[in-house]
Amino acid sequence: MRTNKYAGLCADCGVIVAIAAGWLIGLPGAWRTICPGCQPKPPARADHPGWHEVPLASLDFETTGVDPLTDRVLSFALLDDRGHDYTGLIDPGVEIPPGSVAVHGLTAESLRGAPAPAEALVEVIAWVQDLIDRGVGLVVFNAAYDLTMLRAEADRWGLGQPDWHRLLVVDPFVIDWGIERGALGPRRLTDVAAYYSVTLDNAHDAGADARAAREIAYEIGRRQPTIAAGTLDDLMGWQRYWFAERAEDWNRYAATAGRSLDDPQGWPLARTTVTAARTA
Ligand SMILES: [Zn+2]
Questions:
Q1: From ligand 1's centre to the CA of 274, what distance in Å?
Q2: Which of 8, 76, 92, 273 could hold 33 in an S-S bridge, CB 3.0 to 4.6 Å?
Q3: CATH fold of 46-280
Q4: Residue 176: which region, alpha, beta or left (left: phi > 0; alpha: psi -120 to 50)?
Q5: What is the pLDDT of residues 241-272, one digit of tens each?
């Protein structure tokens, strides 16, 4: 959740909330301010079986920008299900916009001498294919962005694609929307991590983001028995459904606000003709 930019009254209890003393919740175009005492909290952890009890892998990229079809991967973190973490840098061979450097701190100079995209990404793709072959679930926060970019990079550099249709994705961004229906305001990785009391000290470091995303997935499983109860195959279907609902919800607002529309069919990979998610 995000702190309130303006002073106002708590939408729940009516108390006066000073600037940045409370939180902003609500749907796009209809934010509401709430006081810390009325701040929504997730359900407590409980002991029930589910997919969260099986180790998951996790992936995150830092990139040159927000368009998965044209932007490039600069760093990657691959956390496997057996306790091995692989991280790496890529020299993209293109300019890195200052706005992106400001997010993650990766400059062209700092990446000089790192492997070229094709060399590094062929390993990333092999790692994803190994998860697919072993039926291991892969956590990706806002998968429609990272996975669409990986597919575009593979095309760009003439690398083979993994068997995307068999990949089991666990996307805490989408699951969180399915639970909260967007009612808690902006829900980027830092927002959702704070909500679930998951530590994220070094946001926009690929390794830190991948660890936090996986921890959020486990916390959702521990606290949401009905969502934990399905198989990862069931969860794939539910996430497609939630993503479509979220896109339709966004599009109703976007159409009136003159913003760009999302593709309801764009999870976990965007259809190539459509520009994917805005939320990196
Ligand atoms: Zn209140």
A1: 41
A2: 8
A3: Nucleotidyltransferase; domain 5 (3.30.420)
A4: alpha
A5: 999 999 999 999 999 999 999 999 999 999 87
